[in-house]
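User: Predict the structure for this protein chain, please.
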Amino acid sequence: MTTFAELGLSEPVLEALHDVGYQEPSPIQEQAIPHLLQGLDVIGQAQTGSGKTAAFGLPLINYVDPAEHEVQALVLTPTRELCIQVTQALRSYGARKGVDVVAVFGGAPIRSQQAQLRAGGHIVVGTVGRVKDLISRHSLILHGCRFIVLDEADEMLDLGFLEDVERIMALTPSSRQTALFSATMPPEIRRLADQYLYDPVVVKVKAATLTVDTVEQFGLEVSSKDKVAALVEVLGAERPRQAIVFCRTKVRCEQLYRTLRDKGMNVKALHGDMSQGARDGVMIGFKDGRTPLLVATDVAARGLDISTVSHVINFDVPTSPDVYVHRIGRTGRIGRTGRAITFHEARQQREVDAIEAHSGVKLAPWVKDAHVATTAVTPKPRRHSKPHDAERDVDELPVLRKLIIAGGRADGIEPKDVVHALTSAADLDGEAVRNVLVLERFCFAEVPERDAERVLAAAAGIEVAGLPLRLELARA
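Assistant: Here is the predicted structure, written as structure tokens:
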């Protein structure tokens, strides 16, 4: 069994991995890290949850020299949610080495981001639009940028960012090392890779090994005109704890949302035509469990990692088998089984055949109360790099208790500050603090119920962003 040390990572990076509780590399990390450490360009094809952030992030931290006060690496992300997520991960990986990671994204004051760039920044993680804007203002200089990562490149394509990505790439040194990660590989992404990557090594983790072994998968043949009625019937029969209904287009997503809402269902929509603030609100409501049903497009739902999603319903057949596996990967998380039901018309049988061939699973006909065997309820131990979660059976998952913390974004508090304060004060594992949400004036975080009172007592008064921590337990 390969260890992180055997992959060739430096001691400060290994110490940081120990701090955050990583024990062994996931398949994508095991395959990609040695190539990146050798200075090779890499194309990585892997789904969310496979550990791809560490796959490119650890070599990147290994490579950066904190003594050089310039931007040495740039990570481009399609959304600000992913930008924040990647930034938090890189900061934890680089903590022992003193690497400064700056996040730049739209929807936040550009002046404060310009000030952070002036103050330093070895690594910049940014959304495409904000990076382009900062370059045009001469606030982001890429002359010394020798490491580029394109994260979730297929989503950048779906959002129409590919032309801007190429403009940014053209401003970086030709001698740069480039890593491109994508869940799917449409022709446009292959063309981008051919143009901007030099003799890349292709690393691919089969999608079927990541998620489908914990999901019961069904198909339901239905005519186009009867799909809404069929969806209502399926939802009534399945009674999902939380479900995501996937549509191919933004227009179809909005129409279906309105139809279900008018039938009295507690439902929200999530698609690219919504404002960032509206999308944030929907995401928060769904993650908190207030919204049991979400109608979404593939692009908008990228990055949703919620363990309580019990059902995925493909109202429209996915555009490719890779997209199918990515969709159903929203359920069956952390030792739980999930259920996925795909609606299809008779004329779409060829697309269904392709999905079955790719995933290695025959879609069982859906009828009420039907069940099919899954390969395993408990994920295989080496699926993720965070075995504290991955190896637990569902019955062993801790009951969580929510904390309310005074202070928020307006006070300069970031999610990493909350995690560090709670874990260090109460001597908790880094994985124990979950679902951290920082709002303008206050924060939420969840800890195991068995530790809640101890955390409350131990963390009270500790300084976070210069303020003494004030926190209380939310009502159960």
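DSSP finds 18 helices and 20 strands in the chain.
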